[in-house]
Amino acid sequence: MRVPCLLLVLCGPPVLVAQEGATPVRSDADAGQALFERGFRKDGPGTTPVEVMPAFPGGEAELYRRVREETRYPKEALREGVTGRVMVHFVVEKDGRVDSVWVPVHVDHQLDAEAIRVVRSLPPWTPATMDGRPVRVLFQLPITFKMDPSVAEKRRKKTARRRG
Questions:
Q1: Do the strands 128-130 and 133-146 form a parallel or antiparallel pair, or are they unpaired?
Q2: Tens of pLDDT along 92-151?
Q3: 91 φ, ψ to 5°?
Q4: What is the Cα 136 distance to its own chain's centre?
Q5: What are the b/e assignments for 127-146, b being 16+ CB within 10 Å?
Q6: Domains contained in the chain, CATH given
Q7: Which ranges in 2-74 belong to alpha helices (H)?
Q8: Can you tell me the distance from the alpha carbon of 100 to that of 102, in angstroms, rounded to the nearest whole number?
Q9: Are 63 and 10 in contact (CB under 8 A)?
């Protein structure tokens, strides 16, 4: 019997939005340009990023390991042959805790719920900083639930026959 595998892919570099305090970053072109220019300091011939990204305790490899170990393929989704890539959005707060976890584009309610559960269980991160002050950062973490395509198709057909 083939065992379904769980793939974890962290977008590199992570897609993020920095926000100071409770005031959201404006989306018009002038505000975006000002934010970009403020985020970099001119040091000689090149530019040096001032912003320090949040860090998962133990690094990126530990994040992969933790998510892989914590994620359980939902039994019903496994039985029905449901596969998909769930893009989980979450905010790393100024104090490093993971907050505001959501899935903007739903794949399957069982897969979405499992991905949200796993991300909510993550320990606090080292917070991001901009200009020496902690800031909130929005992350997108894709979690892929995958099994052999032939096995998934057989399970989908079997489920369809059961349902009539």
A1: antiparallel
A2: 999 999 999 999 999 999 999 999 999 999 999 999 998 888 989 898 999 999 988 888
A3: -110, 130
A4: 15
A5: bbbbeeebbbbbbebebbbe
A6: 5-163 (3.30.2420.10)
A7: 29-38, 60-70
A8: 6
A9: yes
